[in-house]
Amino acid sequence: MKSVAAARRQALLSAMTDIVDRYRVRVAAAALAVAGILFVLYPATRPYTDEKSLQGAQAFSSTAWVTSHAMGMLGFIGLAIGLLGVHFAQANARDIKRSFWALVITWIGAGLTLTYYGAEAYALRVIGRLALNSGDAGQLDLANQVRTGPGMVLFGIGLVLLAVGGLMTAVTTWRDGGLVSWGGILVGIGLILYLPQFFWPPPVRVAHGLLLAAGCLWLAIGLWGSRQRLAAGGGQRTTVGAAITD
Q1: How many C-beta atoms lie closer than 10 Å to residue 203's C-beta?
Q2: Three-state SS at 200
Q3: How far apart are CA 212 and CA 185, in angstroms?
Q4: Is residue 14 part of a domain?
């Protein structure tokens, strides 16, 4: 009787583990797909004007300014969730330690970056309204005070960490092998270029968003493939690359 009860408990535990693994991968893949779309919408919908004039004040106070930056923030959140799924999918990979540190470094970098995005989205909106109400474009000098100082330092550190995490992600997914490795490489390149893209013209910034989107969607497809392989294999874990190539 004890052996039968133990077998039932083991079967129940195995079924629960399979359900958790299945939905964990689904959530990660969906988060990556959504993040990719948001990384394109952010630069595509962000207003671009002379930020020292009242046109800049109108841009800062517009709904598009807040929503575009919110999409950028949500993109990083989705990327963080998705990379967690990539790490889980690489449980049997030889670079699992590197995958873990790539995840942690990217998370820290994203967190530091999001603090600056919040200031851009909300503080500049208030400054823009202040300038419009007074009709004084000189009020926009406050925007430079928001953008510089300690916030800029943390933002720079965050972007550097994103670049390091992106490079490590590219290396681990490439060594994992398979078609999905290119997704990791594209995401890595996109994160490495996230700092310089701020100095590029709008069309190139949108192209950068498309690069990140392609990488995120590629990784999402790889994760979804690993979910199907997991179900077919009776719950046996496998790497992302194996899920695609086998």
Answers
A1: 10
A2: coil
A3: 10
A4: no
pLDDT at residue 241 in the model = 41
CA-CA distance, 10 to 239, in Å (whole number)?
A: 24
Query: Can you tell me the distance from the alpha carbon of 155 to that of 148, in angstroms, rounded to the nearest whole number?
Result: 10
The candidate with the shortest Cα–Cα distance to 243, out of 192, 177, 151, 153, is: 177
Which pair of structure tokens corresponds to residue 43? 């630069």
| 231/218 Cα distance (integer angstroms) | 20
Q: Domain of residue 165: give its range.
A: 22-245
Under 8 Å between Cβ of 73 and 114 = yes
Q: How many domains does the chain have?
A: 1
Q: How many residues are there in the chain?
A: 246
- Does the residue 134 lie in any domain? yes
Q: Which of 113, 112, 137, 159 is nearest to 58 (CA)?
A: 137
Classify residue 123: in a domain, yes or no. Answer: yes
Decide if 16 is inside a domain: no
Query: Which residue stretches of the chain have pLDDT < 50?
Result: 13, 16, 230-231, 234-246
Q: Find where tokens 């989705």 sit.
A: 78
Q: Which residue has the tokens 């823009």?
A: 128
Concatenate the DSSP letters of all residues of 76-138 into one string.
HHHHHHHHHHHHHHTTTSTTHHHHHHHHHHHHHHHHHHHHHHHIIIIIHHHHHHHHHHHT-GG
